[in-house]
Amino acid sequence: MRFRCLYTLLLIALMLPATPALSQSSTASGISRAFNPAISVNTLLLGRLADKTTERAYNGADLQEAEVQLTAMVDPYWKANLVLAVHPEHAHDDEEGGHGGYAGDVEVATIDGQAVPGGFGLLVGKDYLPFGKHVPLHTHQYAFVDAPAAVVTFLGDHGLTEVGVRLAHDLPLPWYSDLTAYAVDGKSTIFAGESRDPVWGARWSNLFDLSMESTLEIGGSWLHGPMAHDYLLIHHDEDLSGKLDVWGADVTFKWVSASASKGPALTLTGELILPRPEAGAQDPWGWYALGQYRFLRNWWFGLATGALDRGLDAHEQAEPGDDHHGLFLWEKVREYKANLTWVPSEFSAVRLEVARYVDQVGDADETLASLQVNFTIGSHPAHLY
Amino acid sequence: MKRLLILVVLPLLLAADQALADKPLQVVCTVTDLGWLAEQVGGEDAEVSVLCPGEYDPHFLPARPSLARRLGKAELLCYNGLDLEVGWLPVLLDKARNPKVRPGQTGDLDCSLALEQVLEVPVGQLDRSQGDVHPEGNPHYLLDPRNGILVAELMANHMGHLRPEAADRFRQRAAALADELAPRILAWQEQAVPVGQRPLVQYTKQWEYLAAWLGLELLGSVEHRPGISPSPRHVDAIIGQAQQEGVRELIAAPWNHLDVAAKAADRMEAALVVLPAAVASVPEATDYPAMFDVILADLVAAAGK
Fold this sequence. Notes:
heterodimer, A: mainly beta, globular, B: Rossmann fold, Rossmann fold
């Protein structure tokens, strides 16, 4: 698995200089570098102390992720975006077990229509699905070191990045209202990858300007596709089949004071996720809520909580002593997080965080202390609001 | 049948063309100074809206999607350029899905192209250790009203291309604005003479165009690397230098960290003078000329103390 990913990355790296040689003689000849893509690298380093040793809850330091991003106009019609990521290999991917290396992945490879008439947005390629507020984020954009337990459990621990096409349009309403619909080939862990049925989905986002400094966003998401054979199961001794629907609702309040550059700012987000699998779990639910406050020019403080219930019957329920391997295999869990982040510039951040997961069924509680260093070099595109 | 078709379709096409020509040009400007200039040039032939309210530091405007909706309806986008809006305008342009105002299209107007001279274009090695340096030069050129006149002329030409039937009116309005500003510029220059007697310190690199126009000497900046909190060692150095040179005023924009600026001014034994750095950045700066009225009045008042 690891070698296949690295091989893919190597192939892409070899193709990068070769492509312009075929189509853009001025670039290939070295006369002009004007057409080169904007290149950036974002790196996350993570040191951890944990009250037990699993793959996620390790004691030590590691590279959490490194992302290389290339962005450029292809021609008058398309803008391309490519994100290649390297991260520690998960133990369950490695036949020998344990983390001893790094795996590569293509997180994003898209072209975005630039001349689509009628105000439509058209995106073709591999990208994070527009589901809720957390799924579309890259790891370095997370408000906390790890994604919320409900997001990881219900939508996959590798992120929901799929190949397909998406179409978006601003609805003619008095407030900002954007509807995005997509069809993709579901290869993530929550889908049955071998199925020929596509994954469909939509997101409806509504944003209200409460004042010059504050906004309220209310969103709804839905996706439908072939369900993974072990979706939400803990013991993996059943072979499920059927369709999976996942519903989501989210609300976000943002306030950014105009009183000073990088002045006080507050973000409050809540998200509810309701998977509805055709077989297996019964009415699972999960949610998280988080707040971030910039109390000084370079300092943020964050608090988060969340909970989930897989809705498993007695046959599938977790048992005391179940080895979680740090893979969010709790049946019912509550999470609590607090962090302090120093952001000396837009290009670096240092975060100190404490997280506690309380197992509601067994005794697999976890407490983690993390120190994360985040830095970006090169020409990195600005992030969405 | 063909004749009937021509009789019906042709008038409809002509009516549609006329309706488009009669409709005011939809102009979106990134900052309030450009918004005011576009209103003067566009008059009744243009409808102007501004993305960044005067109260916000235009480097750090939150890129709200509702702003993208405004941009989505624009026929002309006028922006400051020189990377002033680089943190939010590209995001809004992507979100707006409006091919008319994308870079290089007819509705895309980089107003810095009007300048005869861009100040502080970095030479030599450039990297992030120097802070948020603008690689193409200092973007705060609208703090020299002579540049405002040049931008108005550029806007008039561009608007004229998009609405040829109103081109003369755009040009006439730009010329009238230049005539109105010219004597006021001379008056502001005369007003500034006593201010130029002593050097000034600025909080962050913002006022170079104002200083170059009025012949003011800027001794240095408290925040010497743009966008990066100043180090105590640098603050000590600039304070010592200011005391040595007899600096009496530290100038800052309303969105600067005025608590830090006030402490530095206090240690310099200088007055902290908060000047409008954009139209509507303070309530009294109601328009572009009023902004310079306030700047000059505040500078002169501080120099006279």
